[in-house]
Amino acid sequence: MRFFWVDAFTREAFGGNPAGVVIGEPNEDMMQGLAKELKISEVAFINLKNGISIRYFTPERELDLCGHATIASFYTLASKGYLDLKDGVNEFDFNTKAGDLKAYINIKGGTVENVFMTQSQPRFGDKIPKGKVAYYLGISENDIVGEPMAVSTGVYDIIVGVSNKRILNGIKADRNSIIAFTEEFGAESLHLFTFDTYIKDDLVLTRNMAPALGIDEEAATGTANGALGVYLLDSGLLSENPLKFNVEQGITMGRPSLISVEISKNDKYEMKVGGAARIIIEGEFCA
């Protein structure tokens, strides 16, 4: 089996969010063991026997879907000659435990420019009282923007807006509090955002924490930022439809990431999340 270490949502080495990509599918114990051994947020295992199917493992357990590992997977498949490609946008179907989705690979001059993926139709949890959020995160209710809630476009993320980057970057809730918070509301992660960005043209700055999955903080997240786009549109915080925006993430972690999100809502939601990637290491995995 071929193994790749890929930084997703960046064009620079050691930026973005690292993911493991394995071409081939060992048994489930081996998949979980490799994810635990590597200690990176997610490892994607790609089976090419009947189309393209992907399974995702964190150091703790399997996930139904992972955005940055999907971007890393299709960037790898495209860059290493596993797919037939032409200049322009190339569309591929793939299967996950979150359902059948699509990937779009943009080829320019024979090289991979970026990769986008669709996401599952959103599901909405209950709105979360601001007092509960303030208790778990150690901030004031006045620092919270909008009405926090859990949203899923593949996995559930608690979406919480805060007033500025000082509050966002200053949140240092301990991992046990965040685990208790996400578990109470049936979510996988806590996804924080503010409209106070570092770059004027970007819409939001985010942080994502999933300690229950063995991930204290992630430098870039695809599914969570898709869920954020749905939240912004559904909550009325933004009225533009369709909505296209860029997300900054991983800044204070020293792994700056840029995620592009496209959301539209008519009879149903249409969602695409994407960005660039960079292969850092490649080799063989011997089970």
Describe this structure in words.
Helices cover 22% and strands 43% of the residues. Strands 6, 7, 8, 9, 10, 11, 12, 13, 14, 15, 16 and 17 form a 12-stranded mixed beta sheet that branches. A 6-stranded mixed beta sheet has the order 5-4-3-2-1-18. The chain has 287 residues and is of the alpha+beta class. It is globular. It has 6 helices and 18 strands.
Please identify, by name, the CATH architecture of the largest domain: Roll
Which structural class is indicated by helix and strand composition? alpha+beta
Average pLDDT, to the nearest integer? 96
Give the overall silhouette.
Answer: globular
**What is the count of structural domains?**
2
The fold-level CATH name of the largest domain is Diaminopimelate Epimerase, Chain A, domain 1
Task: Kindly list the characteristics that best describe this protein.
6 helices; Diaminopimelate Epimerase, Chain A, domain 1; 2 domains; alpha+beta; 287 residues; 18 strands; six-stranded mixed β-sheet
List the SSEs and their pairings.
Elements: E1 2-8, E2 17-23, H1 28-38, E3 42-47, E4 53-57, E5 62-63, H2 67-79, E6 88-96, E7 99-108, E8 111-118, E9 123-127, H3 130-137, E10 144-152, E11 156-162, H4 165-170, H5 175-184, E12 189-194, E13 204-210, E14 215-218, H6 222-235, E15 243-249, E16 257-265, E17 269-275, E18 277-284
Parallel strand pairs: 2-3, 11-12, 13-15
Antiparallel strand pairs: 1-2, 1-18, 3-4, 4-5, 6-7, 7-8, 8-17, 9-10, 10-11, 12-13, 13-14, 15-16, 16-17
